[in-house]
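so im writing up the methods section and need the Caspase recruitment domain containing protein 6 record in one place, dumping it here so i stop losing it
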Amino acid sequence: MDPRSWTTGTAVGPVPQRDYTALTGSVICADKISGVNSDVLNLSVSVKSVNTGRQDTATPSVDETLPSHQGPAAEMILSNKLRLIDCLSADPSFILQNVQQCNIISNRQYGNLKDLSQREETVIELIDLVISKGEKFCSLFLEVLKQPDILETYPNLNKIKW
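--- predicted struct ---
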């Protein structure tokens, strides 16, 4: 079977697959995305070689998913993750209550995080959850961390350069 006859995509129906070559770290995007509303758009790339039966194109298979780009708020949280864990682990319930109140996490997520037995584990899961929700929620989380009552409860947050 000819790989060029394979189809990909199901959002608007099958799309014929095309052969493209990217050189020197280039990326080729040949799909058209329209009529989509999204807070988070993941543009990860999965690379696989296809053995077409022709000797000149038979290469070992590569299965590598490239990380998606994070926005500035998510990058800020990630770059300070260890410091945040250290600071917020002093009193995880207070930060949980504040992020729930600001609708950064749902009531169910709050309950699940509150039930974790280790303080550090609670904060790690909270940070990972916020990051997984995307840039909008990361920005809201950073705003919560800058509130006066939060800074009073977690004075070491003042040492983090935002």
